[in-house]
TrEMBL record:
The chain crosses the membrane at residues 6-35, 81-100, 121-138, 176-196, 222-239, 245-264, 271-293, 319-339. The keyword Cytoplasm does not apply. The keyword ATP-binding does not apply. GO terms for cellular component: cytochrome complex; plasma membrane. Its main location: membrane. Keywords: Cell membrane, Electron transport, Heme, Iron, Membrane, Metal-binding, Transmembrane, Transmembrane helix, Transport. This is Cytochrome d ubiquinol oxidase subunit II. One of its GO terms (molecular function) is oxidoreductase activity, acting on diphenols and related substances as donors, oxygen as acceptor. NCBIfam families: cydB. One of its GO terms (biological process) is aerobic electron transport chain. It is a multi-pass membrane protein. Belongs to the cytochrome ubiquinol oxidase subunit 2 family. The gene is cydB. InterPro entries: Cyt-d_oxidase_su2.
């Protein structure tokens, strides 16, 4: 049980890394056509996230892999029952990769504009869906325990509290639309606003000149809205769905972080504003996991159908091996992440970006094997 709790905490940390780092990537993507008024400014915004966006996705892969290995029943129940929204997120992440990587390949403004729109849409959709997904984990989903032989629902009174019932499996029996409630949709609005503000603060921190000032002004408008909506959702979650009084602590720290970020933004301290907003998002994730415990997936049908830590956890031997591997590899990942942000800490000036555009000439795409088809590539 001790190792199961440890891995529950480690998975929460991995999600903190993903949402707090990838959050500004999504925010920049959503703001690409809003803050970027011309080609040079949009390129500056893309250069700002360029060294980091793919590395930030490692946190998602690691969180998913750790869940699969440490809590296979949790992984199987969640990913099979929430297949449609998770598939939508995956497709958007694929489109975003294409948008970033293929944008400069052809020397055509029309080509670049189309990929910018694809990038923007593929940032908006996951930003909303992640909030809906985590709100469902807090609220509870339509989960029942099915006998895998008869495919019948096991009576709640027959479900043991600490172990999986032999020959049974937890199943999400509600469809996709059962996951869309007022509470979960508000959760989607929360993550969307938080990521928008996170992206605006990141652009303010990573660029100079008018683009940086415009991003900072935008964050001053987004900050109060994001903080207010987050407060409404979090208090609703705590009062209606959280059985743990301790989850008030990360909630209060998150509120302090977001309010302090607003204050720093108002006084032009973009570095502090971004760091404090990072803390606010991190504590919001801690609040979500604290609200879920001791369950990993809560049933809205009957508490007996909820999937607990002990039910979902792998064998002790597996958790021991995973812990040893984490001790070796996680510090390296953290060191690399810190190093990459330190190396690329310099601000970007849109005016310093070369006017010349690389890529294939649009009329010679099919002749790309010929050297003359390339223009500054």
């Amino acid at each position: 049980m001790t190792l199961a709790i440890l891995w529950f905490i480690l998975i929460a940390i991995l999600w903190i890394g993903y949402l707090a780092l990838e959050g500004f990537d999504f925010g920049v993507g959503m703001l690409l056509k809003i803050l970027g008024r011309d080609e040079k400014e949009r390129r500056a915004m893309l250069h700002a996230i360029g060294p980091h966006w793919d590395g930030n996705e490692v946190w998602l892969l690691t969180a998913g892999g750790a869940t699969f290995a440490a809590f296979p029943e949790w992984y199987g129940t969640l990913f099979s029952g929430a297949y449609i929204p998770l598939l939508c997120i995956l497709l958007c992440l694929i489109v975003r990769v294409c948008a970033i990587e293929w944008r400069p390949k052809i020397n055509s403004q029309t080509w670049r504009d189309r990929w910018d729109w694809a990038h923007t849409i593929s940032a908006w959709v996951p930003s909303i869906l992640w909030g809906v997904a985590f709100a469902n984990l807090v609220q509870g989903m339509r989960i029942e325990v099915l006998d895998m032989t008869t495919r019948q629902v096991v009576p709640a009174a027959d479900v043991p509290a600490d172990t999986l019932l032999y020959g049974s499996s937890h199943q999400i029996t509600g469809g996709f639309f059962s996951m869309l409630t007022a509470f979960t949709l508000l959760g989607g609005v929360v993550t969307c606003l938080l990521f928008l503000n996170h992206g605006a603060l990141f652009i303010a921190l990573k660029t100079t000149g008018e683009l940086s000032q415009r991003a900072l002004r935008l964050s001053r408008r987004l900050g109060p809205a994001a903080t207010a909506v987050t407060a409404v959702w979090a208090i609703w979650a705590q009062i209606a769905y959280s059985p743990n009084a301790l989850s008030w602590l990360p909630l209060i720290i998150a509120a302090v972080g977001l309010l302090a970020s607003m204050s720093a933004s108002a006084t032009g301290r973009d570095g502090w504003a971004f760091a404090l907003h990072f803390v606010g998002i991190a504590m919001a994730v801690v609040f979500i996991f604290a609200s879920m415990a001791p369950d990993v997936m809560r049933s809205s049908i009957d508490p007996a159908y909820s999937l607990t830590l002990t039910q979902a956890a792998s064998a002790e031997t597996t958790l021991i091996i995973m812990t040893a591997a984490a001790v070796v590899f996680v510090p390296g990942v953290l060191a690399y992440t810190i190093w990459s942000y330190k190396v690329f800490a310099k601000r970007i000036n849109a005016d310093d970006i070369d006017e010349g555009q690389g890529g294939l000439h649009p009329t010679k795409v099919r002749d790309s094997a010929q050297p003359e088809a390339l223009i500054g590539y």
